[in-house]
Amino acid sequence: MSPDTLGRAAVREVPTLAADAPVTDALKALLAARAPALPVVRADGTFLGIFGEREFINAVFPGYLGTLRSAAFVPHAIDDVIDRRLECGQDPVSKYTNTEHIAVGPDYSDAQLAETFLHHRVLIVPIVENRRVVAIVTRADFFEALATRFLDR
User: Fold this and answer.
1) pLDDT of 68-84, one tens digit each?
2) Is-contact 46 132, C-beta < 8 A?
3) What average pLDDT score do residues 28-56 get?
4) Cβ pair 18, 135 in contact under 8 A
5) Helices then strands (H, E): number in the chain?
6) Tens of pLDDT along 86-101?
7) CB burial class (10 A; 0-12, 13-18, 19+) of residue 22?
8) In the CATH hierarchy, which top-level class contains the domain 6-152?
9) Which residues contact 54 (CB under 8 A, 6 or more apart)?
10) Distance separating alpha carbons of residues 9 and 137, to the nearest angstrom
């Protein structure tokens, strides 16, 4: 990978989430890392998937909401939904982890990152070496690096 790749400028080191950690711990880590998602790892430290904004929303809201065109007819306030789904906070994060294969190796290209962000519904792409997460690239950071490079040209 050449040193002037966009992806290099957008790389972040972040904590990983243990697959057996409760969702509440994952939320605290997400908020502290100020990232839209974090990598989830198995007990042996190998990459399992990602958990973030979309996965948490899926944990809180009933599964059928994702299949509706509109949820306007659902009259409940958000606090009612949260109160009914508080128990999901103790579920292991692995229950909601996105295990889609979206990671890249350390020799990734900007085109590979762009393709991953365009064709997969992810907010981060983990960089994995020897099945272990070494860093991530967020879609927002990649966009910022791309936009900056575009404007500088």
Assistant:
1) 566 665 556 778 777 87
2) yes
3) 95
4) no
5) 6, 6
6) 888 999 999 999 998 7
7) middle
8) alpha beta
9) 37, 98, 121, 123
10) 9
